Amino acid sequence: MIITDFLKRNAKEYKDDVALVEINPHLHNNSRITWREFALIESDPNCRQVRTEMTWGEFETKSNLFANLLLSRGVKKGDKVAILLMNCLEWLPIYFGILKVGALAVPLNYRYTSDEIRYCLNLADCSILIFGPEFIGRVEEIADRLEKIKYTFYVGQDCPRFSESYDNLVNYCSPLSPDVEITEDDDAAIYFSSGTTGFPKAILHSHRALTHAARVEMEHHGQTREDTFLCIPPLYHTGAKMHWFGSLITGGRAVLLKGVKPEWILKTVSEEKCTIVWLLVPWAQDILDAIENKSINLDDYNLSQWRLMHIGAQPVPPSMIKRWLKYFPNHKYDTNYGLSESIGPGCVHLGVENPHKIGAIGKAGYGWQAEIVDSEHKPVKRGDVGELAVKGPGVMKCYYNDPKATAEVLSDGWLYTGDMAMEDGDGFIYLVDRKKDVIISGGENIYPVQIEDFIRRHSMVKDVAVIGVYDTRLGECALAIVEPKDGMTVTEEMMQEFCLELPRYKRPHSFIFAKVPRNPTGKIEKPKLRDMYGARGLVAQQNEVV
Questions:
Q1: Which helix H or strand E contains 496, and what residues bound it?
Q2: Cα torsion at 313, 359, 277, 285 (round to 10°)?
Q3: In this predicted structure, what is the pLDDT of residue 476?
Q4: Residue 486 and residue 342: Cα distance in Å, rounded?
Q5: From CA 204, how far away is CA 112, in angstroms rounded?
Q6: In sequence order, what are the residues at sequence separation of 6 or more whose Cβ sits closer than 8 angstroms to the Cβ of residue 388?
Q7: What per-residue confidence (pLDDT) applies to 523?
Q8: Helix (H, G, I), strand (E, B) or coil at 229
Q9: Is 82 left (phi over 0), alpha (psi -120 to 50) or beta?
Q10: pLDDT of 7 over the 90 cut
Q11: Domain with CATH 3.30.300.30 in the chain
């Protein structure tokens, strides 16, 4: 089966059952809002909650309407259609409408600037762009420079002059499923790398990869039709969507929550009776902090049905999970490792049956293989650090239009992830760090993740990132950017004393106290930190040379 077949089946067997619920804690009537205004709305505590829902039958019909709109505009198999929307009920039907005509869905990061949007549209050879009200300004800036875009469709009220109204156009289209033959080997989607190591690359995936992602999610988490999945991360990212695929394959219900405040998350879990929640590390930390500072009271919520909390998209501090299980002792816990190049989460996972191995990312996931290899791609001994490589049905076809970059990471079906890892005596894999993030100080390899995990144990630290900066004697040394918990003051002396437990060569040489920037999927934006703080090292290096 291809991924659209599951939607067709659900619409037939569970037509009147709710498929998707949207919870929008911030109501705003003006659709012509800028990105800055939208960010302010997200932080407004006085906005009331809004709830809308969609059945499986409506989901299928909406996807068919958009599919037939695309066909009416000459879209054919292999064409690329870009999606630039915030999470909303329209997002997934639009995505499936694209797939149904054999076109490729190209989701775009909602944080992209106008120039980044243009770059990605050109790189992926997109001919159509569909966008929402939050992006009017950015799209308008480049509307007359989108050489490859033939049509733009706008989702929302007050359609701007340079686009066409999606809502008006689909009303004139057929609600019947288009007759387009699609196979598992056909191209399905292009996703963009997060850009944490440079400008985004276009990642090409087949229908086979999407279907396998759905099976992985169901197998790993025992998902059934009785489960309700709470989806908070952005749907443009493989992580959120592939976890939701577990609901698709089982016919279960999912809730899209447009907000990350701890009280919103717990209120939604309580009122919508959510059983599975996927969190990012910062959100889990915020919930724990809110419990501990008594700004929320768990007794105010009905959480007894919540059976699974899982985390992915970044290294997970073991100390945080131990805190979590203290307050939620009946939760099953899992962590999922993956990349957009491996169709998102699950190529390696811990498994809910392995809480004694918290800290590991786990073993190869359902249908996957994993190895840790040296620079010549030969397996290393257990306990040695090497690069993690994975192989399975979810590996990307290639970096679209970039054979050189493809050849650097793909070989004989193996994807070389760029993540440094080690395997313990029981075969569980532990992430050590990104290959490009390793700090070489006085000839010693320092893995920032290990230092970050240690510093996060401090009771006054909310978040931390460690980067390498130039040092005249050692070549590089570790700099720690520490984000204290709200209302707390942390000093360099406190941190230096705390880090005395670390081996001398691993101790940060200096500390900066500031917010740790993370992208929408929770990954630390280390290139940004290097730009902000690594420049001092470059100046020092230039002065040394002079």
A1: helix 492-498
A2: -80
A3: 79
A4: 36
A5: 19
A6: 348, 370, 371, 372, 417, 419, 420, 421, 429, 431
A7: 76
A8: strand
A9: beta
A10: yes
A11: 438-545
Q: Are 10 and 19 in contact (CB under 8 A)?
A: yes
Would you say 507 and 465 are in contact if contact means Cβ atoms under 8 Å apart? no
Beta carbons of 239 and 233 less than 8 angstroms apart: yes
Which pLDDT score, from 0 to 100, does residue 520 have?
A: 66
Q: What is the pLDDT of residue 281?
A: 80
Q: What is the pLDDT of residues 185-220, one digit of tens each?
A: 999 999 998 654 457 899 999 999 999 999 999 999
In the chain, CATH 3.40.50.12780 sits at 3-290
CA dist 387 and 417 (Å) reads: 7
Closest listed residue to residue 329, CA positions, set 306, 348, 311: 306
Q: Which structure tokens are listed for 236?
A: 């443009």
* CATH 2.30.38.10 intervals, the chain: 367-435
Q: Are 54 and 18 in contact (CB under 8 A)?
A: yes
Q: Do 385 and 424 form a contact (C-beta atoms < 8 A)?
A: no
Residues sharing a CB contact under 8 Å with residue 12, sequence separation 6 or more, in sequence order? none
β-pair partners for 50: 24
pLDDT at 181: 95
Which residues, other chains included, contact 395 with Cβ-Cβ below 8 Å and sequence gap of 6+?
Answer: 209, 341, 342, 343, 410, 413, 414, 415
Q: Which CATH number applies to 438-545?
A: 3.30.300.30
Question: What per-residue confidence (pLDDT) applies to 530?
Answer: 82
Q: What pLDDT, on the 0 to 100 scale, is given for residue 539?
A: 34
Helix (H) or strand (E) run with residue 223 in it: none
* Fold for the domain defined by 3-290: Rossmann fold (3.40.50)
In CATH terms, the fold of domain 367-435 is Luciferase; domain 3 (2.30.38)
What is the DSSP code string of 326-380? Answer: HH-TT-EEEEEEEEGGGTEEEEEE--TT-GGGBTB-BEE-TT-EEEEE-TTSPBP
